[in-house]
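Escalated from tier 1: zinc ion holo job.
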Amino acid sequence: MKKILTCLVLLLSVLLSAQTDSRIYDIIDAISASRIEKDINTLANFGTRHTLSDTLSNTRGIGAARRWIKSEFDNISRDCNNCLNVFYQKDMVTKGTNQRIVKDVMVVNVVAIQKGTKYPNRYIIMSGDIDSRVTDPNNYTSDAPGANDNASGMAGTIEAARILSKYTFENSIIYVGLSGEEQGLFGGKGLAGYAQKNNWDIIGVMNNDMIGNIKGVDGVIDNRSFRIFSEPVPPTETEKERKSRRFYGGEVDGISRQLARYVYKTTKLYMPEMNPMMIYRLDRFGRGGHHRPFNDVGFAGIRIMEAHENYTQQHQDIREENTIKYGDVVEHVNFEYAAKLTAVNAINLASIAWSPPPPSEVKIGGIVEPSTKLKWKKNNDPNCIGYKIYWRDTTSPTWDYSRFVGDINTFTLKGIVIDNFFFGISSVGKDGYESPVVFPSEVFRN
Ligand SMILES: [Zn+2]
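Tier 2 regenerated the structure:
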Protein backbone atom coordinates (compact mmCIF):
# COMPACT_ATOMS: atom_id res chain seq x y z
CA MET A 1 0.00 0.00 0.00
CA LYS A 2 2.80 2.36 1.00
CA LYS A 3 4.52 1.56 -2.27
CA ILE A 4 1.38 2.27 -4.27
CA LEU A 5 0.95 5.55 -2.42
CA THR A 6 4.55 6.56 -3.11
CA CYS A 7 4.01 5.74 -6.75
CA LEU A 8 0.85 7.79 -6.89
CA VAL A 9 2.52 10.75 -5.23
CA LEU A 10 5.42 10.50 -7.66
CA LEU A 11 3.14 10.26 -10.66
CA LEU A 12 1.09 13.20 -9.42
CA SER A 13 4.22 15.23 -8.88
CA VAL A 14 5.32 14.51 -12.45
CA LEU A 15 1.99 15.54 -13.88
CA LEU A 16 1.82 18.69 -11.78
CA SER A 17 5.40 19.81 -11.59
CA ALA A 18 5.75 19.87 -15.36
CA GLN A 19 4.23 23.33 -15.25
CA THR A 20 3.97 24.36 -11.60
CA ASP A 21 7.53 25.47 -10.97
CA SER A 22 7.05 29.23 -11.01
CA ARG A 23 10.79 29.78 -11.40
CA ILE A 24 10.39 29.31 -15.15
CA TYR A 25 7.82 32.10 -15.31
CA ASP A 26 10.01 34.26 -13.07
CA ILE A 27 12.87 33.78 -15.53
CA ILE A 28 10.70 34.79 -18.50
CA ASP A 29 9.51 37.91 -16.65
CA ALA A 30 13.01 38.90 -15.56
CA ILE A 31 14.50 39.13 -19.07
CA SER A 32 14.80 42.84 -19.80
CA ALA A 33 14.36 44.34 -23.28
CA SER A 34 15.83 47.64 -22.10
CA ARG A 35 19.04 46.00 -20.82
CA ILE A 36 19.32 44.14 -24.14
CA GLU A 37 18.82 47.46 -25.96
CA LYS A 38 21.54 49.09 -23.88
CA ASP A 39 23.98 46.23 -24.57
CA ILE A 40 23.26 46.17 -28.32
CA ASN A 41 23.95 49.92 -28.38
CA THR A 42 27.21 49.45 -26.49
CA LEU A 43 28.34 46.71 -28.90
CA ALA A 44 27.31 48.67 -32.01
CA ASN A 45 29.22 51.69 -30.70
CA PHE A 46 32.55 49.89 -30.92
CA GLY A 47 32.45 51.00 -34.57
CA THR A 48 33.50 47.68 -36.00
CA ARG A 49 33.90 44.33 -34.27
CA HIS A 50 35.49 42.71 -37.30
CA THR A 51 37.66 39.76 -36.27
CA LEU A 52 40.72 41.38 -37.88
CA SER A 53 39.99 44.87 -36.49
CA ASP A 54 41.97 46.87 -33.94
CA THR A 55 42.58 45.22 -30.56
CA LEU A 56 44.42 48.00 -28.73
CA SER A 57 41.90 50.84 -28.70
CA ASN A 58 39.54 51.00 -25.74
CA THR A 59 36.72 52.47 -27.80
CA ARG A 60 36.89 50.86 -31.24
CA GLY A 61 37.43 47.36 -32.60
CA ILE A 62 37.04 43.78 -31.45
CA GLY A 63 39.59 44.10 -28.65
CA ALA A 64 37.54 46.76 -26.88
CA ALA A 65 34.36 44.75 -27.52
CA ARG A 66 35.64 41.53 -26.01
CA ARG A 67 37.12 43.30 -22.99
CA TRP A 68 33.73 44.92 -22.39
CA ILE A 69 31.94 41.54 -22.70
CA LYS A 70 34.38 40.01 -20.24
CA SER A 71 33.84 42.87 -17.80
CA GLU A 72 30.06 42.36 -18.06
CA PHE A 73 30.43 38.66 -17.24
CA ASP A 74 32.79 39.60 -14.40
CA ASN A 75 30.21 42.04 -13.01
CA ILE A 76 27.48 39.40 -13.19
CA SER A 77 29.78 36.97 -11.39
CA ARG A 78 30.55 39.48 -8.65
CA ASP A 79 26.80 39.82 -8.06
CA CYS A 80 26.35 36.04 -7.63
CA ASN A 81 29.18 35.37 -5.22
CA ASN A 82 31.62 34.53 -8.05
CA CYS A 83 29.31 31.92 -9.55
CA LEU A 84 30.82 32.37 -13.01
CA ASN A 85 34.24 31.25 -14.16
CA VAL A 86 35.07 33.87 -16.80
CA PHE A 87 38.00 33.50 -19.19
CA TYR A 88 39.27 34.06 -22.73
CA GLN A 89 39.60 30.97 -24.89
CA LYS A 90 41.82 31.70 -27.87
CA ASP A 91 43.47 30.19 -30.90
CA MET A 92 45.89 31.68 -33.40
CA VAL A 93 44.59 31.52 -36.97
CA THR A 94 47.34 32.14 -39.50
CA LYS A 95 47.24 34.26 -42.63
CA GLY A 96 45.95 32.39 -45.67
CA THR A 97 44.04 29.73 -43.72
CA ASN A 98 41.29 30.85 -46.05
CA GLN A 99 40.72 33.91 -48.21
CA ARG A 100 39.16 35.82 -45.33
CA ILE A 101 42.21 35.55 -43.09
CA VAL A 102 44.45 38.20 -44.64
CA LYS A 103 46.76 38.41 -41.63
CA ASP A 104 47.59 36.32 -38.59
CA VAL A 105 44.91 36.81 -35.98
CA MET A 106 44.18 35.61 -32.47
CA VAL A 107 40.55 34.50 -32.48
CA VAL A 108 39.33 35.13 -28.94
CA ASN A 109 36.11 33.83 -27.37
CA VAL A 110 34.78 35.11 -24.04
CA VAL A 111 33.54 32.19 -21.92
CA ALA A 112 31.51 32.31 -18.70
CA ILE A 113 30.83 28.99 -16.97
CA GLN A 114 28.22 28.58 -14.25
CA LYS A 115 29.26 25.28 -12.72
CA GLY A 116 26.62 22.68 -12.00
CA THR A 117 26.39 21.45 -8.41
CA LYS A 118 26.01 17.81 -9.31
CA TYR A 119 27.25 17.37 -12.87
CA PRO A 120 29.93 20.05 -13.33
CA ASN A 121 31.25 18.35 -16.47
CA ARG A 122 27.88 18.27 -18.26
CA TYR A 123 27.37 21.51 -20.19
CA ILE A 124 24.48 23.20 -21.90
CA ILE A 125 25.75 26.16 -23.94
CA MET A 126 24.20 29.42 -25.13
CA SER A 127 26.26 31.33 -27.66
CA GLY A 128 26.20 34.66 -29.47
CA ASP A 129 28.86 36.20 -31.69
CA ILE A 130 31.20 39.09 -30.99
CA ASP A 131 32.31 39.85 -34.55
CA SER A 132 30.67 41.87 -37.33
CA ARG A 133 31.33 42.74 -40.98
CA VAL A 134 30.33 44.95 -43.91
CA THR A 135 29.90 44.13 -47.62
CA ASP A 136 33.51 43.10 -48.20
CA PRO A 137 34.23 40.36 -45.66
CA ASN A 138 37.87 41.42 -45.51
CA ASN A 139 37.20 45.10 -44.79
CA TYR A 140 38.14 45.39 -41.14
CA THR A 141 38.16 49.18 -40.78
CA SER A 142 34.79 50.49 -42.01
CA ASP A 143 31.94 50.92 -39.56
CA ALA A 144 30.20 47.56 -39.05
CA PRO A 145 27.76 48.03 -36.17
CA GLY A 146 26.41 44.48 -36.56
CA ALA A 147 23.45 45.43 -34.38
CA ASN A 148 21.33 42.45 -35.34
CA ASP A 149 24.18 40.29 -36.72
CA ASN A 150 25.11 39.57 -34.07
CA ALA A 151 25.05 42.05 -31.20
CA SER A 152 21.49 40.80 -30.66
CA GLY A 153 22.63 37.24 -29.93
CA MET A 154 25.54 38.47 -27.82
CA ALA A 155 23.34 40.80 -25.77
CA GLY A 156 20.80 38.01 -25.28
CA THR A 157 23.55 35.70 -24.02
CA ILE A 158 24.75 38.29 -21.49
CA GLU A 159 21.16 38.92 -20.34
CA ALA A 160 20.52 35.19 -19.89
CA ALA A 161 23.65 35.03 -17.69
CA ARG A 162 22.36 37.94 -15.58
CA ILE A 163 19.07 36.18 -14.88
CA LEU A 164 20.15 32.54 -14.58
CA SER A 165 23.12 33.36 -12.32
CA LYS A 166 20.53 34.01 -9.58
CA TYR A 167 19.75 30.28 -9.52
CA THR A 168 21.76 27.12 -8.98
CA PHE A 169 21.67 24.18 -11.34
CA GLU A 170 22.73 20.55 -11.25
CA ASN A 171 24.35 20.79 -14.68
CA SER A 172 26.74 23.49 -15.89
CA ILE A 173 25.65 26.34 -18.12
CA ILE A 174 28.06 28.14 -20.45
CA TYR A 175 27.39 31.62 -21.78
CA VAL A 176 29.82 32.42 -24.55
CA GLY A 177 30.64 35.14 -27.03
CA LEU A 178 32.29 33.56 -30.06
CA SER A 179 34.55 35.38 -32.48
CA GLY A 180 35.68 34.75 -36.06
CA GLU A 181 32.20 33.74 -37.23
CA GLU A 182 32.16 35.86 -40.38
CA GLN A 183 35.71 34.81 -41.32
CA GLY A 184 34.88 31.07 -41.32
CA LEU A 185 33.35 29.89 -38.01
CA PHE A 186 36.74 29.95 -36.27
CA GLY A 187 35.58 30.76 -32.74
CA GLY A 188 33.14 27.85 -32.65
CA LYS A 189 35.81 25.55 -34.01
CA GLY A 190 38.19 26.74 -31.31
CA LEU A 191 35.74 26.20 -28.47
CA ALA A 192 34.59 22.81 -29.82
CA GLY A 193 38.24 21.73 -29.89
CA TYR A 194 38.79 23.06 -26.37
CA ALA A 195 35.73 21.11 -25.22
CA GLN A 196 37.07 17.90 -26.74
CA LYS A 197 40.52 18.42 -25.23
CA ASN A 198 38.97 18.93 -21.79
CA ASN A 199 36.53 16.02 -22.19
CA TRP A 200 33.49 18.21 -21.71
CA ASP A 201 30.24 16.30 -21.87
CA ILE A 202 28.22 18.74 -23.98
CA ILE A 203 24.45 18.29 -23.76
CA GLY A 204 23.95 20.81 -26.56
CA VAL A 205 24.73 24.20 -28.04
CA MET A 206 22.08 26.84 -28.65
CA ASN A 207 23.64 29.21 -31.14
CA ASN A 208 21.86 32.55 -31.30
CA ASP A 209 22.61 34.39 -34.51
CA MET A 210 20.31 37.31 -35.39
CA ILE A 211 17.45 37.36 -32.90
CA GLY A 212 16.21 40.92 -33.33
CA ASN A 213 14.65 41.48 -36.75
CA ILE A 214 10.87 41.32 -37.16
CA LYS A 215 10.43 43.02 -40.56
CA GLY A 216 11.33 40.58 -43.28
CA VAL A 217 12.71 41.37 -46.70
CA ASP A 218 9.54 39.62 -47.93
CA GLY A 219 7.38 42.31 -46.30
CA VAL A 220 6.15 40.14 -43.46
CA ILE A 221 6.15 41.68 -39.99
CA ASP A 222 6.05 39.06 -37.24
CA ASN A 223 7.19 39.30 -33.63
CA ARG A 224 6.05 35.82 -32.56
CA SER A 225 7.74 33.40 -34.92
CA PHE A 226 11.32 32.21 -34.76
CA ARG A 227 13.33 29.44 -36.33
CA ILE A 228 15.14 26.47 -34.82
CA PHE A 229 17.59 24.97 -37.31
CA SER A 230 18.91 21.46 -36.71
CA GLU A 231 20.65 18.90 -38.85
CA PRO A 232 18.98 15.47 -39.18
CA VAL A 233 21.84 13.21 -38.06
CA PRO A 234 25.41 13.90 -36.96
CA PRO A 235 28.06 14.02 -39.72
CA THR A 236 30.22 11.82 -37.47
CA GLU A 237 27.93 8.80 -37.68
CA THR A 238 29.55 5.57 -38.73
CA GLU A 239 28.87 3.60 -41.88
CA LYS A 240 27.24 0.95 -39.68
CA GLU A 241 24.90 3.52 -38.16
CA ARG A 242 24.05 4.87 -41.60
CA LYS A 243 23.21 1.41 -42.88
CA SER A 244 21.12 0.50 -39.87
CA ARG A 245 18.96 3.58 -40.40
CA ARG A 246 17.62 2.02 -43.60
CA PHE A 247 16.03 -0.76 -41.61
CA TYR A 248 15.29 0.77 -38.20
CA GLY A 249 14.75 4.46 -38.88
CA GLY A 250 16.35 7.52 -37.37
CA GLU A 251 16.81 9.65 -40.50
CA VAL A 252 15.32 12.65 -38.69
CA ASP A 253 16.22 11.69 -35.12
CA GLY A 254 19.82 12.76 -34.50
CA ILE A 255 20.88 14.45 -31.25
CA SER A 256 20.61 17.98 -32.66
CA ARG A 257 17.08 17.31 -33.88
CA GLN A 258 16.13 16.04 -30.38
CA LEU A 259 17.48 19.28 -28.92
CA ALA A 260 15.41 21.24 -31.45
CA ARG A 261 12.30 19.29 -30.43
CA TYR A 262 13.11 20.01 -26.77
CA VAL A 263 13.27 23.76 -27.40
CA TYR A 264 10.08 23.59 -29.46
CA LYS A 265 8.21 21.77 -26.70
CA THR A 266 9.48 23.94 -23.83
CA THR A 267 8.54 27.09 -25.73
CA LYS A 268 5.04 25.81 -26.52
CA LEU A 269 4.54 24.87 -22.86
CA TYR A 270 5.73 28.06 -21.17
CA MET A 271 5.46 30.73 -23.88
CA PRO A 272 2.40 29.62 -25.88
CA GLU A 273 2.15 33.03 -27.54
CA MET A 274 5.34 32.23 -29.46
CA ASN A 275 5.49 30.35 -32.72
CA PRO A 276 8.64 28.21 -32.88
CA MET A 277 9.36 26.85 -36.36
CA MET A 278 11.53 23.77 -36.53
CA ILE A 279 13.48 23.92 -39.76
CA TYR A 280 14.74 20.53 -40.81
CA ARG A 281 18.16 21.60 -42.05
CA LEU A 282 21.56 22.44 -40.61
CA ASP A 283 21.21 26.15 -41.35
CA ARG A 284 19.80 28.51 -43.97
CA PHE A 285 20.27 27.30 -47.57
CA GLY A 286 24.00 27.29 -48.27
CA ARG A 287 24.80 29.56 -45.33
CA GLY A 288 26.57 28.90 -42.06
CA GLY A 289 26.50 29.52 -38.35
CA HIS A 290 28.46 28.83 -35.21
CA HIS A 291 26.61 25.69 -34.14
CA ARG A 292 28.12 23.88 -37.11
CA PRO A 293 31.69 23.46 -35.77
CA PHE A 294 30.16 21.74 -32.73
CA ASN A 295 28.04 19.50 -34.99
CA ASP A 296 31.17 18.76 -37.03
CA VAL A 297 32.77 16.95 -34.08
CA GLY A 298 29.59 15.17 -32.97
CA PHE A 299 28.05 17.54 -30.40
CA ALA A 300 24.35 18.43 -30.49
CA GLY A 301 23.80 22.00 -31.62
CA ILE A 302 21.03 24.14 -33.07
CA ARG A 303 20.63 27.65 -34.42
CA ILE A 304 17.95 29.88 -32.92
CA MET A 305 17.06 32.96 -34.96
CA GLU A 306 14.41 35.33 -36.25
CA ALA A 307 11.88 33.96 -38.76
CA HIS A 308 12.11 36.89 -41.17
CA GLU A 309 15.50 38.21 -42.25
CA ASN A 310 16.24 41.45 -44.00
CA TYR A 311 19.20 41.14 -46.34
CA THR A 312 19.58 44.89 -46.88
CA GLN A 313 20.50 45.02 -43.20
CA GLN A 314 23.06 42.22 -43.09
CA HIS A 315 26.71 42.37 -44.12
CA GLN A 316 26.22 45.77 -45.75
CA ASP A 317 28.22 48.97 -46.00
CA ILE A 318 26.12 51.68 -44.36
CA ARG A 319 24.68 53.67 -47.27
CA GLU A 320 21.54 54.79 -49.05
CA GLU A 321 20.76 53.65 -52.59
CA ASN A 322 17.49 54.32 -54.42
CA THR A 323 15.88 55.34 -51.11
CA ILE A 324 16.84 52.00 -49.51
CA LYS A 325 18.90 52.35 -46.35
CA TYR A 326 21.51 49.61 -46.16
CA GLY A 327 23.37 48.59 -43.03
CA ASP A 328 22.98 46.59 -39.83
CA VAL A 329 22.19 49.53 -37.57
CA VAL A 330 20.53 49.61 -34.14
CA GLU A 331 17.35 51.32 -35.43
CA HIS A 332 16.25 48.09 -37.12
CA VAL A 333 16.46 45.90 -34.03
CA ASN A 334 13.28 45.07 -32.12
CA PHE A 335 14.43 44.74 -28.51
CA GLU A 336 11.17 43.25 -27.20
CA TYR A 337 11.49 40.47 -29.75
CA ALA A 338 15.15 39.89 -28.87
CA ALA A 339 14.05 39.66 -25.22
CA LYS A 340 11.45 37.01 -26.12
CA LEU A 341 14.03 34.87 -27.92
CA THR A 342 16.41 35.37 -25.00
CA ALA A 343 13.65 34.09 -22.70
CA VAL A 344 13.25 31.06 -24.99
CA ASN A 345 16.94 30.33 -24.49
CA ALA A 346 16.87 30.96 -20.75
CA ILE A 347 13.95 28.62 -20.00
CA ASN A 348 15.55 25.88 -22.08
CA LEU A 349 18.94 26.33 -20.43
CA ALA A 350 17.23 26.16 -17.03
CA SER A 351 15.02 23.15 -17.89
CA ILE A 352 17.97 21.18 -19.19
CA ALA A 353 20.33 22.27 -16.41
CA TRP A 354 17.75 21.19 -13.81
CA SER A 355 17.12 17.81 -15.48
CA PRO A 356 18.80 14.48 -14.72
CA PRO A 357 21.09 12.85 -17.27
CA PRO A 358 19.22 10.94 -19.98
CA PRO A 359 19.02 7.16 -19.95
CA SER A 360 21.80 5.42 -21.89
CA GLU A 361 22.05 2.28 -24.02
CA VAL A 362 18.44 2.65 -25.14
CA LYS A 363 17.34 -0.47 -27.02
CA ILE A 364 14.11 -1.25 -28.83
CA GLY A 365 12.37 -4.49 -29.76
CA GLY A 366 9.05 -5.85 -30.95
CA ILE A 367 9.50 -7.12 -34.49
CA VAL A 368 6.41 -9.16 -35.55
CA GLU A 369 4.82 -8.64 -32.16
CA PRO A 370 1.72 -6.72 -31.08
CA SER A 371 3.69 -4.51 -28.67
CA THR A 372 6.81 -2.37 -28.63
CA LYS A 373 9.46 -3.00 -25.98
CA LEU A 374 12.13 -0.67 -24.72
CA LYS A 375 15.16 -1.31 -22.49
CA TRP A 376 17.62 1.23 -21.16
CA LYS A 377 20.31 1.85 -18.60
CA LYS A 378 19.21 4.03 -15.70
CA ASN A 379 21.16 7.15 -14.88
CA ASN A 380 21.60 6.37 -11.14
CA ASP A 381 20.52 9.87 -10.16
CA PRO A 382 18.57 9.70 -6.86
CA ASN A 383 16.61 12.78 -7.93
CA CYS A 384 15.42 11.04 -11.09
CA ILE A 385 11.87 9.85 -10.41
CA GLY A 386 11.67 7.83 -13.58
CA TYR A 387 11.47 7.71 -17.33
CA LYS A 388 9.06 8.86 -19.98
CA ILE A 389 8.53 7.00 -23.24
CA TYR A 390 7.62 9.09 -26.25
CA TRP A 391 6.34 8.02 -29.63
CA ARG A 392 4.95 9.68 -32.72
CA ASP A 393 3.57 8.92 -36.15
CA THR A 394 6.43 8.48 -38.60
CA THR A 395 5.35 11.63 -40.46
CA SER A 396 5.11 13.85 -37.38
CA PRO A 397 7.89 16.30 -36.49
CA THR A 398 7.07 16.30 -32.76
CA TRP A 399 6.84 13.73 -29.96
CA ASP A 400 3.05 13.69 -29.79
CA TYR A 401 2.40 10.70 -27.51
CA SER A 402 4.02 9.92 -24.22
CA ARG A 403 3.73 7.86 -21.11
CA PHE A 404 5.54 8.11 -17.78
CA VAL A 405 6.67 4.64 -16.70
CA GLY A 406 8.38 5.22 -13.35
CA ASP A 407 11.84 4.33 -12.16
CA ILE A 408 12.37 1.13 -14.15
CA ASN A 409 14.65 0.04 -16.98
CA THR A 410 12.35 -1.86 -19.32
CA PHE A 411 8.81 -1.39 -20.48
CA THR A 412 6.34 -2.86 -22.96
CA LEU A 413 3.95 -0.51 -24.72
CA LYS A 414 1.04 -2.89 -25.14
CA GLY A 415 -0.84 -2.75 -28.42
CA ILE A 416 1.53 -0.22 -29.95
CA VAL A 417 2.99 -1.79 -33.10
CA ILE A 418 6.62 -0.90 -33.66
CA ASP A 419 6.21 -0.52 -37.43
CA ASN A 420 3.88 2.45 -37.26
CA PHE A 421 5.72 4.87 -34.96
CA PHE A 422 9.08 6.27 -33.94
CA PHE A 423 10.04 5.94 -30.26
CA GLY A 424 12.28 7.66 -27.74
CA ILE A 425 12.78 8.03 -24.01
CA SER A 426 13.71 10.77 -21.56
CA SER A 427 14.49 10.86 -17.86
CA VAL A 428 12.38 12.93 -15.46
CA GLY A 429 13.69 14.74 -12.39
CA LYS A 430 11.74 15.34 -9.18
CA ASP A 431 10.86 18.89 -10.20
CA GLY A 432 9.44 17.59 -13.48
CA TYR A 433 12.30 18.71 -15.69
CA GLU A 434 13.16 16.26 -18.42
CA SER A 435 16.30 15.41 -20.31
CA PRO A 436 16.20 15.60 -24.10
CA VAL A 437 14.71 12.49 -25.70
CA VAL A 438 17.09 9.66 -26.59
CA PHE A 439 16.37 7.72 -29.79
CA PRO A 440 17.11 3.98 -29.48
CA SER A 441 20.55 3.06 -30.80
CA GLU A 442 20.19 -0.70 -30.76
CA VAL A 443 17.64 -3.36 -31.58
CA PHE A 444 17.04 -6.43 -29.43
CA ARG A 445 15.19 -9.65 -30.22
CA ASN A 446 14.05 -12.33 -27.81
ZN1 LIG B 1 26.68 37.37 -40.37
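Residues 24 and 179 are 30 Å apart (CA to CA).
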